[in-house]
Design a protein that fits this description.
By secondary structure, the chain is mainly alpha-helical. The chain has 2 domains: about 35 residues, Rubrerythrin, domain 2, CATH 2.20.28; about 120 residues, Ferritin (Up-down Bundle), CATH 1.20.1260.10. It is built from 4 helices and 3 strands. The protein has a 3-stranded antiparallel β-sheet with strand order 2-1-3, with no helix packed on it. A hairpin with a 5-residue loop joins strand 1 and strand 2. Bound molecules: fe (ii) ion (2 copies).
Amino acid sequence: MKVKVFRCRICGDPYIGESPPTHCPFCGADAKYIIDAHEWDSGEFDVQLSEVSRENLEAALDLEMGNAAFYACARDKAAATGDEYMLAKFKCLMKVEAEHASAICKFLKIDKPELSAATCSAKGVENSHEGYEREDRAIKAYAKFRDEATEPRMQDFFGALVEIEIDHLQIHAEDTK
Ligand SMILES: [Fe+2]
Ligand SMILES: [Fe+2]
């Protein structure tokens, strides 16, 4: 089978493979959002935003930047203690949340803010507990934003974020059992 180029409708990033991945390797979106790159709509991030969706995207950006900063801290603590599993988990989560922030900035037509410094525990399991709480807050916020959105594209986008953050929550739940 020949490889081809795919593209994720949630983050816009391309992927090369024989078939679409089960989840976008960049933003974590479900395979249903990954399309043949030939079919890409160049206006995908050009949405006439309602006032509510604009405010909700700004709130989502704050959540994502805060969570990315937290996961960067947790990644660095795991690296310092040589915990390879926690290092892998928090590194990936940091990249995914930063990708969500990038996608939000594409809708808002703004530059991505700098990642600020965050505090976290020295212990991976405690950071997994905090990660769980953070994902739980994000899921609740994005479900509300999805339901408040009148634009189909924003309903899809916030709906996809809900699914992705539920996946993250489940990983933390496993790690704190
Ligand atoms: Fe993606
Ligand atoms: Fe996120």
